[in-house]
Design a protein that fits this description.
single chain, 142 residues, alpha+beta, 8 strands, 15% helix
Length: 142
């Protein structure tokens, strides 16, 4: 009986960890307006929530850029190292109820992310309702 319970718990825990592991990792961000690759972002799990920070800026002229238009604690912080996605929670096959920061505009938006295959991440930032927003597809960095 103990063996059955242990096996069940192991399978359940493995399923939970693999679902989180799918969105975690490094992703190349693609600007939805220009189509240009902008940065490498690391998506990670902390205390059961999903976060993402900028770990590389691809345009050499912007490597030392600061979040000049940001408000609060992010004001004038370097974009490199900045946490841009905060507090997403798993909801089915999506992660929702968090925020995403656009460091260029200094604006904070509601955010959802969802895998589109194993190597594409659909990222949506919006105000109010999800229909009023923008989407980007990020590509997994191997």
């Amino acid at each position: 009986m103990n063996r059955i319970i242990f096996t069940f718990l192991f399978v359940a825990l493995t399923g939970i960890l693999s679902a989180t592991a799918q969105v975690t990792g490094k992703w190349k961000t693609i600007d939805d307006e220009t189509g240009e690759a902008k940065s490498i972002v690391e998506v990670y799990e902390q205390n059961g929530k999903i976060y993402a920070k900028v770990v590389e800026i691809l345009n050499p002229a912007k490597k030392n850029a600061k979040c000049q238009n940001c408000k609060g604690e992010d004001k004038d912080k370097p974009i490199l190292g900045l946490t841009i996605i905060k507090g997403l929670k798993k909801d089915g096959d999506e992660y929702t109820d968090g925020d995403i920061l656009d460091p260029q505009k200094g604006k904070l938006y509601s955010c959802t992310i969802k895998l589109d295959g194993k190597d594409k991440l659909s990222v949506r930032g919006y105000m109010g309702i999800s229909l009023l927003g923008r989407s980007q597809v990020w590509h997994r960095v191997k």
